[in-house]
Structure formats: structure tokens, C-alpha cells
Amino acid sequence: MIKSKSGDVLALLLSLTSFAGVALAQSNPPSTPQSSTTQSQAAQSDEKERVFGVIPQFSVTSQSSLTPLTSGEKFRLFLRGSFDPFTFFSSGFQAGLSQATDEFAGYGQGAAGYAKRYGATFTDQVSSGFFSNYFYSVLFKQDPRYFRIGHGTIKSRVFRALEQEFVVRKDSGRRTFGWQNICGAFTSGTLSNAYYPSTDRGVGLTISRSAIAILYGSAGGIFSEFAPDIDRKLFHRKKINEDPKTP
Questions:
Q1: Is the pLDDT reported for residue 37 higher than 80?
Q2: By three-state DSSP, how is residue 202 classified?
Q3: pLDDT digits over 57-106, tens only?
Q4: How far is 136 from 58, CA to CA, in rounded Å?
């Protein structure tokens, strides 16, 4: 029954995703051949943005001066991040750790328990991406991308990486409170009550999970900030598309 609840929530999110995709397709005019070529080149460039050649960094940029994303581009960014092969792999890995430590004991053990944990973990990731990187990003007109600093002291870069979870760019370029991240974390955390075991539900646990998700987001910013540096040192890659300006 828990498994079906997780599946129902995921199906709901996929339905919302499909509805949003259709609505965006109908509201946006067809791209001209030139713009399609530009989008294709941008997509190819993004595909190369994988730390260690595996971990996707589609929503990370080192450019400080960028045109704002349209709602359609935010939607595509959410899709690419949520349904990338690495997301399926990482969900499986997290589900395995959860089973090994008997987290969410209500799911049980064995193949059935793992399947429930996998479904819950994957749904968590899709839910978080949908609300933070698309829904609230569009609603509050905020940019879901992480703007990498790329220079300065380690301390200053860590501080700016942590800050970007709470202070983000609006589509207009101004800085503002990161409603997309905070509201996204709490909405996703609240939604998880629909498929988590009964012993792992409730207001207190929801707030705790949401706060942890925000901390993970901050840790993700630090990873996005420094991982390319580590990647270059390990594989002797050259810097590409770096912008020395601070966002």
C-alpha cells in the first residue's frame, strides 16, 4: 500500500509535468531555425557540464551576465535534472543506504522494502526539482541556476555558495530572498507525508526533513562551486566558459 501511495504521488507529479509541458508548448511560438540551432548548441554545451564526466551540473553556470530563463527553459532544466540517468542511479544508491540503516522501518526489508524506498527517494527528487526549479521559480520570477564564483579565497567562495540557497537572482537580475528554494523544500517535505510510513509523518518530522533538504541544497552549492576545480586538477582539464565577474 505504501508503494502504491508513492507511485500515486509520482504519477501526479508526472501528470503535472505533462500538463505544464503541453501548456508551455501551446503558449510558446515555434522556434525559428536560427534559435533552434542556438538552443541545440547550448544543450550540447550543457551536456559536457558533468563533473568527473558523470555528475550533471546543468543548472550551474560560471557566466555572471546571462539572459533570464523563460518558463519553458526552466521547465526543460527541471526535466533534464530530474530524469537524467544519474538521478536514477543516485536514487538507487540512497535507497540502498536507507535500507542498510533500516531508515523508514515501516517499509520493511527485502526487495519489497527496497522498492518502496527507491520509489520514495526518486519521488522526493522529482518533487523537489519540480517545486524549487520550476513551479516556485516561475511563480516568484527567480532564477533556479547556481552562479559559480570561481575565484577568490576558499572562505569567501564557501560563504557565497551557502548564501545562494537563501539569496537568489530574480529574472530581472536583482537579488532577493530565495523563496523558490525555501518554499520548494517545505512543499516537497509536506507532500512526502502522503507516501512515507505513518511513523515518519507529522508536522515536526516534516519541518525537520525540509530543513535538512535546505542544508543539502547549501551543501550542493558548495559541491557545484568547487567540484570543477577538483575535476580539472584530477584530469588536467582546461577552464572553459569562465567569467571572472562575481554575480
A1: no
A2: coil
A3: 999 998 877 889 999 999 999 999 999 999 999 999 999 999 999 999 99
A4: 18
pLDDT grade for 170, boundaries at 50, 70 and 90 = very high
Which three cell numbers, joined as nine digits, stand for 245? Answer: 565577474
**Encoded amino acid at 55, one letter:** I
- Kindly tell me the burial class for residue 49, based on how many C-beta atoms sit within 10 Å of its own C-beta (0-12, 13-18, 19 or more): middle
CA quadruple 85, 208, 20, 31: dihedral sign: negative
Grid cell 540512497 — which residue? 94
Q: Count Cβ atoms below 10 Å from residue 135 Cβ, excluding itself.
A: 20
Please report the beta strands in 26-82, taking only residues with DSSP state E, as ranges in sequence order: 50-51, 55-56, 60-61
Percent of the chain whose pLDDT exceeds 70: 76
Owner of C-alpha cell 530581472: 172
Q: Which three cell numbers, joined as nine digits, stand for 232?
A: 580539472
Fill in the amino acid letter for 37.
Answer: T
Contact 134, 21 (CB under 8 A): no
**Is 174 buried (19+), middle (13-18) or exposed (0-12) by CB count in 10 A?**
exposed
Element (H, E) at 235: helix 203-235
Comparing 47-56, 63-72, 127-136, 204-213, which segment has the lowest mean pLDDT?
A: 47-56
Q: What is the pLDDT of residue 16?
A: 58
- Please name the helix (run of DSSP H) or strand (run of DSSP E) that holds residue 111, with its range, or none: helix 110-129
pLDDT at position 127 over 90: yes
Q: Cβ(224)–Cβ(58) under 8 Å? A: no
